[in-house]
Write a structure and sequence with these properties.
alpha/beta, Rossmann fold, 2 domains, five-stranded antiparallel beta sheet, binds S-adenosylmethionine
Length: 379
């Protein structure tokens, strides 16, 4: 079936004019095209939408992130003003829950300014409605627009939507994966004619040994370096939560999600979420390469349990009806458990801080490599 979205027409025009399009450019256009991009035109979250995220599953998630933010404030010697920044805040649910939890610390709460970095006008409107009444709150089009100062930076399911490159191993070397126009006029995957010079030497040792046909994915370090240099120079820490792998390795994780199911990424460009797993190893290395400190990564399940999610669930259940209590138990399992539909080991968490902060609460990584080994590298 030939796709007829306006964006498909535009992408084909660009391919005809300039030749095959690298996967990262295709992903960039599908998600961020100023008129037709997926993240510019809609609220994709929730049962009626395409996917559900941790903050939408339970209030416990945002509450615990609020308390984790307080622990960073303490570790940073309680600065008089703290910027609480969220990148890609969805409906604003996580920030609302975090701020409610932070009210228990009036000195910190009074010192906060809240900054939401969001490109999506539909979601920005929802955030403004939900967070109406919060003092000292600001919206920004880009992270660089947030004023200077010590900060806690939160990003849940943000990195997976940042465009990736893919390279495929052939007998001739590693070639960039591209999108081109097939015999019937449809969008199809292809590979660039020439190999990428010197690519193999840049790969992690595991990936170098892979057979022809293997796919290696990578994201430019631009976003993580912006975050890491900010906390290195101005103090504080960032927390990045997403699905992904602890160690860099080969694997094709480029996927489309629509109506809570996998879809063909080349069908209906601009109408499905396009994502790829996050390489947490690469994030940590990039942050440390410029002198920030990386903490973890650990699995989401371990992180939330160390922050006390089980105790919080019990206290909510004690006041709830049997039906609500069952929902809370279900949410706990989904956020921290393993296996189908559960996010406990599929999702990982990494902290990046000012190097003066030696440890971040719940982010020592000792036990989690074991979970990754059991699950396989590309969980
Ligand atoms: C997968 S959603 C996650 C939403 C939210 N963090 C949650 O967990 O529910 C991705 C979020 O990132 C936003 N986003 C996508 N690209 C962005 C960009 N380049 N800059 C800032 N926000 C972006 C989307 O509009 C959305 O709010």
């Amino acid at each position: 079936m030939i796709d007829q979205t306006a964006l498909a027409t535009e992408i084909k025009r660009l391919i005809k004019a300039a030749g095959p399009m690298p996967v990262w450019r295709y992903m960039e256009l599908c998600l961020g095209h100023p008129e037709h991009g997926y993240y510019v035109t809609r609220d994709p979250l929730g049962r009626e939408g395409d996917f559900t995220t941790s903050p939408e599953i339970s209030q416990m998630f945002g509450e615990l992130l609020g308390l984790w933010s307080a622990s960073v404030w303490k570790a940073a010697d309680e600065p008089q003003t703290l910027r609480l920044i969220e990148i890609g805040p969805g409906r604003g649910t996580m920030m609302a829950d975090a701020l409610r939890a932070l009210r228990v610390l009036p000195i910190l709460y009074q010192s906060l300014s809240v900054h939401l970095v969001e490109i999506n006008p539909v979601l920005r409107q929802k955030q403004q409605t939900l967070l109406a009444g919060i003092r000292n709150i600001h919206w920004h089009d880009s992270f660089e627009d947030v004023p200077e100062g010590p900060a806690v930076i939160l990003a849940n399911e943000y990195f997976d939507v940042l465009p990736i490159h893919q390279a495929i191993k052939r007998e001739t070397g590693w070639h960039e994966r591209v999108i081109e126009i097939g015999a019937s006029g449809e969008l199809v995957f292809g590979v660039a004619a020439d190999p990428i010079p010197g690519f193999e030497a840049l790969l992690p040792p595991l990936a170098r040994l892979s057979p022809p046909g293997a796919v290696f994915e990578w994201r430019p370090d631009t976003e993580i370096l912006k975050i890491a240099s900010r906390v290195r120079d101005q103090g504080g820490a960032a927390l990045i939560i997403d699905y992904g792998h602890l160690r860099s390795d080969v694997g094709d994780t480029f996927q489309a999600i629509a109506s809570h199911s996998y879809a063909d990424p080349l069908q209906h460009p601009g109408r499905a979420d396009l994502t790829a797993h996050v390489d947490f190893d690469a994030l940590g290395r990039a942050a440390e390469s410029i002198g920030a400190r990386a903490h973890g990564p650990v699995t989401q399940g371990a992180f939330l349990k160390r922050l006390g999610i089980e105790t919080r669930a019990l206290s909510l259940m004690a006041k709830a009806t049997p039906q609500v209590s069952e929902d809370i138990a279900g949410a706990l399992q989904r956020l921290t458990g393993e296996g189908r539909g559960a996010m406990g080991s599929m999702f990982k968490v990494i902290g990046v801080s000012d190097p003066k902060i030696e440890t971040l609460v719940a982010l020592s990584d000792d036990t989690d490599r074991e979970a990754e080994r059991r699950q396989g590298t590309h969980g």
